[in-house]
Amino acid sequence: MILLLIDTSGPVAGVALMEDGKVRYEAMCVNSFTHSQSMLPMVEEAYLHTGLSVDKTDYFACVTGPGSFTGVRIGVSTVKALAQVGNKPCVMVDALESMANGVRYFGGILCPIQDARAGQVYGAAFEGTTMERLLPDEPLILEEYLEKVAAYGKKMLFLGDGMPVHREKIGAMLGDKAVFAPAQLSYLRPAAAVELAWNRIEEAVSYLELQPLYLRAPSAERQKNLKEKYNG
To answer: What is the pTM of this model?
Structure first.
């Protein structure tokens, strides 16, 4: 059985291929190109270097968010198109959980955070040894998020693109309870996401049901609603 995963939810575009429970290919791309330019060539490279083929792929998976609104849409649209050709099922994977899965077995709390601007983060929390979810994906003021994770009274490992943005404030609030992932472990690893997808194949949906996970409306929609509220 073959599963292809695509991730365009954050600053790093990623692709992973898993066959019969083994990671056959993993690639990440950090460059000045948009994910829409990078993704299909990356998928082609994955199949080229493994000798596998898109028509023999049994499942397609996508990191559906939270993350960049535009990025998530690119990933979802790409996976929908690939799956539609053969009417193949799709698996949805959570970005924050995937990040945490890449550094699991830390003896404390895993704290993946994405920068949500205006002093906010998209955050969640997981038990490092078991990957038990402790907090749901939420958009929170940084201080509120830190209070929630600090309540567990354990060391906290921070990672994600929100970590370097807020590192100074996190350190000031939490002191030596805060641990920061090194650069090579601080982003979402496609292999960590494809492993989650593989273990959730029974939750697969049709490509028509594949949808982005947005924790809040896009800024354009929020501005429109605000105008309507005050002009109405």
So the answer is: 0.91
